[in-house]
Design goal:
single chain; alpha/beta; 19 strands; Aminopeptidase; 12 helices; Alpha-Beta Plaits
Length: 436
C-alpha cells in the first residue's frame, strides 16, 4: 500500500504533529542505559569476557587509563563494578554510519544506514528493539525541514538524531553508540568471519562507491568485506526493509560468535579497532553493567520490530512513508510497553514454509491443532530465515513463551512483531519455516 494521494500524505503529517503534541512535556521514566544491538552488540559482550578474566582487566585498565573523549573511560577501581544495575526501563540509540569519502572525517557529515532504538527492562529481563528504515520521511528537529531520517546525523550529528526521535516519535534517548562501516569489516575479520545463511544470491557492483557484493545462496562464513556487502545489499525488491531484516539476522549470528570461548584471545585487537571506529558517550563502567545484564538475558525474551510503512517515490527521491496507526502501535508496544489483553485461545495460527520444510510444517500444524488453534498453511518458494511473527498486537512475548513450553522446537526462534500483516495468512501469528 502506498501513501501517495493527498489525503494519505495529510494523515501522515497529522500523525507526526499529533505525536509531538501528545508527548510534549511528558516526562520519561527512562534512565541511563545500554544494550548494544547489531553492530554495537559486541561491546558489552567484550566487557563480560574482560570482567570474568581479572588479569586481563588489570592489563587493559593500565594500558587504556589515558583514553579520553568519545570512547571508554577506564576506572582503576575494581570495587566500582559492584554498583547495582538501574531497575528502570532504559533506551539506547545504535547508529551505523557510512563513509563520507576517502580522507574525510569518519564522523562528520556521515549518514546513518542503520538506526535502531533498543528498550531494556532490567526488572523483567526483556529487550525490545525497533529498526527505523533509513529512508523514513520525517520532520527533522531544529527546523531542518522534511527529509529522510538518515540525513539527520549528516546534518546535525547524533544530537539532531536524538532530538528528531523525541519530537517525532516521543522516544527519549539517553545514550548512544555509533559504529562506522569500517568497524564491521575489521572486527569480522578479527573474529575469523561470521557464519550466516544467505537467503538468496546477492550480486551488485558500485564502482564509484567501492561496494562490490558477490554472495551465493546458502550457509557461509562471511569475511569482513562480505559482511559489509550483506548488510548493505538492497537490490532484492525489498529495498531498505530487506536490508533492515538482514541487519537483524546478522545481529543474532554476531552475538553467538561473540559468546564463543576463543574470543578471549581477540579482545586486544578488537579494542584497538573499537577506539578508532566506534563512538559512544558511555564509560567502561556503564558498559560493564550492561554486559552483566546481557549475559543473563534469555534469547526468547528479545522482541524486534521495524517501523511499518510503504515505499513512495517523489521525483528522484525514494521515501519510506510510515503508516500512522501501525507506527504508533509499534512505539507504544516496544517503547512504552503497553499491553493489550486478549484470549489467546481464540488466536488463529499461520504457517509459511519453504518446500524443504514441508514435513516439519505438517508436524507443527498437527501440534497447533492439538492445542486448539485454527491453522492456515501456505507454501512459499523463497523465504528468508525461520522466525515467529506476531501479526496482531494482542500476540505478546508471554504468549510466545507459553507456546515454546508446549512446542520446544520453537525455542530460540526469533520473535518478530510485524503489524503490516505481510505474513498474516489470515492469522494472528505466523510461524515462518525457512531453509536458513
Amino acid at each position: 500500500m502506498k501513501l501517495a494521494n493527498n489525503n494519505q500524505q495529510d494523515e501522515y503529517i497529522a500523525f507526526l504533529k499529533q505525536i509531538r503534541k501528545e508527548r510534549q512535556g511528558k516526562t520519561s521514566n527512562f534512565a541511563k542505559l545500554l544494550f548494544t544491538v547489531v553492530l554495537g552488540l559486541f561491546l558489552a559482550v567484550i566487557c563480560v569476557i574482560i570482567i570474568e578474566n581479572t588479569i586481563l582487566i588489570d592489563k587493559l585498565m593500565v594500558e587504556n587509563a589515558d583514553t579520553s573523549g568519545g570512547f571508554f573511560k577506564f576506572s582503576r577501581s575494581k570495587k566500582d563494578f559492584q554498583v547495582p544495575f538501574s531497575p528502570k526501563r532504559q533506551n539506547i540509540l545504535v547508529l551505523g554510519v557510512d563513509s563520507n569519502g576517502e580522507g574525510a572525517d569518519i564522523w562528520e557529515g556521515t549518514r546513518s544506514d542503520t538506526i535502531m532504538v533498543v528498550n531494556v527492562d532490567p526488572k523483567t529481563r526483556t529487550i525490545k528493539a525497533i529498526s527505523i528504515p533509513r529512508d523514513s520521511k520525517v520532520f527533522l528537529a531544529d527546523n531542518k525541514g522534511v527529509s529522510k531520517i538518515n540525513s539527520a546525523h549528516a546534518i546535525g550529528g547524533v544530537n539532531l538524531v536524538k532530538k528528531t526521535l523525541k519530537e517525532t516519535f516521543g522516544i527519549k534517548i539517553d545514550h548512544y553508540i555509533i559504529v562506522h562501516d569500517d568497524a564491521v569489516e575489521h572486527i569480522v575479520d578479527a573474529l575469523g568471519g561470521i557464519p550466516i545463511y544467505v537467503e538468496k544470491p546477492m550480486k551488485y557492483h558500485d564502482w564509484a562507491g567501492h561496494l562490490h557484493i558477490d554472495l551465493n545462496k546458502g550457509n557461509t562464513v562471511l569475511n569482513g568485506k562480505q559482511a559489509v556487502g550483506y548488510l548493505r545489499y538492497r537490490k532484492d525488491g525489498l529495498g531498505d526493509i530487506g536490508r533492515t531484516q538482514r541487519q537483524q539476522w546478522f545481529m543474532r549470528s554476531f552475538f553467538e560468535k561473540m559468546k564463543s570461548p576463543e574470543i578471549i584471545t581477540k579482545i586486544p585487537e578488537i579494542l584497538n579497532i573499537c577506539k578508532t571506529y566506534i563512538k559512544t558517550d558511555l564509560s567502561f563502567y556503564e558498559l560493564s553493567q550492561y554486559a552483566g545484564f546481557i549475559k543473563g538475558v534469555d534469547e526468547n525474551k528479545i522482541e524486534i520490530a521495524t517501523l511499518p510503512g510503504a515505499p513512495n517515490q517523489k521525483g528522484y527521491i525514494s521515501y519510506w512513508i510510515l503508516d500512522p496507526q501501525k507506527t504508533q502501535e509499534v512505539i507504544d508496544r516496544m517503547i512504552y510497553r503497553d499491553k493489550v489483553e486478549a484470549d489467546f485461545s481464540r488466536f488463529k495460527a499461520g504457517i509459511m514454509y519453504s518446500p524443504l520444510k514441508e514435513k516439519e510444517a505438517m508436524l507443527i500444524q498437527d501440534q497447533l491443532k492439538e492445542l486448539g488453534f485454527e491453522v492456515h498453511t501456505l507454501k512459499i518458494t523463497h523465504l528468508s530465515h525461520t522466525r515467529f511473527v506476531a501479526n496482531k498486537n494482542e500476540v505478546n512475548i508471554d504468549f510466545y513463551n507459553w507456546l515454546q513450553k508446549k512446542m520446544p522446537e520453537l525455542n530460540k526462534v526469533q520473535f518478530v512483531y510485524d503489524p503490516t500483516e505481510n505474513f498474516s495468512v489470515g492469522s494472528d501469528f505466523t510461524i515462518v519455516l525457512a531453509e536458513g
